[in-house]
Design brief:
Blueprint (H helix, E strand, L loop, with lengths): L1 H58 L2 H14 L6 H25 L1 H5 L5 H11 L2 H17 L3 H23 L6 H26 L7 H17 L1 H24 L2 H14 L4 H19 L3 H35 L9 H17 L2 H7 L3 H26 L1 H24 L9
Helix pairs in contact: 1-3, 1-5, 1-6, 1-7, 1-8, 1-10, 1-11, 1-12, 2-6, 2-12, 3-5, 3-6, 3-9, 5-8, 6-7, 6-8, 7-8, 10-16, 10-17, 11-14, 12-13, 13-14, 14-17, 15-17, 16-17
């Protein structure tokens, strides 16, 4: 009972901060949808999806691995090496981000041909390259704060601050924004302000380190080793992002920006169903890493079970709300978005499935089960791509949402099997 109370208390405040960010993101989407239409929203969402997917390469799973590594540092009381470790990561991440951003800028023309409206998307993708650096380093900073158990600041950094800044920018300048490009520029500005705040916060938490030329070489070398060490966790993160990228890419290939814009709104609303689970994951991930080092499997099992109950019950309430009031909620963004009601229900059910199965994915990421995650990622991404190619041309965005739901069911069942009937059955060596 005490464990449940502690988890609920910590999660409540994290969810409160996250809810502020979700509310700001909701208002941003409403403002853009009502003033600029579904077409601009679709182009904007496509650009952010490209940034998110390429950000996988720049992060390479380090945003998850850093949670486990710092937890291990603290458990071994080896905190003296932590500042050097953090600087090593930031140096290598910056170099890798700069390289990938240059590739995106150069290949923007080629990438735009994968969409149905290639002419206007080239410039959009070039601007998106500027968001790569900020997105990656913000995600990493959030992981560092999470590992140090500053859960409130972690959620604030990753999900809330840039949305509030973006909302403020739009509130004062929406009349001057007339395209997805100008909207994306506002997003980039908000992200870099957030990044500066994150770096200053982490700097205050750690002692200074030397920045000589020789030290920089050492930091870069160590940082690249850490990136390589994170390769299996990369597959876990990549799976989730690619599943969200495939449906958007397939829709943008077969349909116009307006249709994609409706789907972007549908996913934004539907994903709120899983917000409780993602909040709980922030809390339990570093705890699982520590408990695994202590081989305290019963306590991990208890944490996972409590999380599944809490997340599943809350998600069910959200789904019922979407079922009853889904059309009215979509209508807030404009009448053209009401056509996405069926797709909204499928996306909500997909998130309900995630919530009911609970944080099995977090257990696998934090307990050296990464090779299994790689296999799962390859199977689910391939299946998702095939099903999207089959269903999207016939059923539109509803087909994409149904594919997401089906893929989530199969992936979660697979994870549940390996966690409950594999990891939880282990005995102390």
């Amino acid at each position: 009972m005490r464990q449940l109370f502690a988890m609920v208390k910590a999660s409540f405040w994290m969810f409160f901060v996250k809810a502020i960010g979700m509310g700001a993101a909701f208002l941003v989407t409403v403002i853009v949808g009502r003033n600029l239409g579904a077409g601009v929203l679709g182009d904007y969402g496509l650009a952010l999806t490209i940034v998110a997917v390429l950000g996988l390469v720049t992060k390479f799973g380090t945003d998850k691995n850093i949670v486990r590594r710092i937890s291990q540092f603290e458990l071994s009381e080896d905190n003296d090496r932590l500042p050097q470790f953090l600087v090593s990561y930031y140096v290598s991440a910056f170099c890798l981000c700069a390289l990938i951003a240059l590739v995106l800028y150069s290949a923007a023309g080629i990438l735009s041909f994968l969409t149905s409206e290639s002419d206007k998307n080239k410039e959009l993708f070039q601007l998106a390259s500027l968001a790569l650096l900020s997105n990656t380093l913000i995600a990493t900073s959030s992981g560092i704060l999470q590992a140090r158990k500053h859960y409130f600041l972690s959620v604030l950094a990753q999900l809330t601050t840039h949305q509030l800044i973006l909302l403020a920018i739009l509130a004062f300048s929406i009349s001057k924004i007339d395209s997805a490009i100008s909207l994306l520029l506002c997003y980039v500005i908000a992200n870099y302000v957030t990044l500066i705040a994150c770096l200053l916060t982490i700097r205050k938490m750690n002692s200074p380190v030397g920045i000589s030329r020789q030290a920089l070489r050492s930091y870069l070398s160590n940082g690249l080793k850490f990136h390589l060490d994170s390769r299996y966790l990369f597959s876990a993160t990549a799976g989730g992002y690619l599943l969200g990228f495939i449906d958007i890419l397939v829709i943008s290939y077969f349909y116009d920006s307006a249709t994609l814009g409706v789907y972007i709104v549908v996913t934004r609303i539907g994903n709120t169903v899983g917000s409780i689970l993602s909040t709980l994951n922030t809390y339990i991930a570093p705890n699982i890493a520590i408990l695994d080092q202590e081989f305290n499997i019963p306590k991990i099992k208890n944490l996972v079970f409590l999380c599944s109950i809490l997340a599943g019950f809350t998600a069910l309430i959200f789904v019922i709300i979407l079922w009853i009031f889904g059309v009215e909620i979509l209508g807030i963004f404009g009448d053209e978005f009401k056509s996405g009601h069926t797709a909204l229900l499928f996306v909500g059910l997909a998130q309900l499935i995630n919530a009911v199965f609970g944080p099995c994915g977090q257990v696998m990421q934090m307990t050296n089960m990464q090779p299994l995650i790689l296999r799962l990622m390859l199977v689910t991404v391939s299946l998702n791509l095939i099903l999207n190619i089959i269903f999207v041309p016939i059923y539109g965005i509803a087909g994409a949402a149904f594919t997401t739901m089906l893929t989530n069911l199969l992936a979660n069942a697979w994870q549940f099997k390996h966690v409950y009937y594999g990891y939880f059955k282990r005995v102390r060596p």
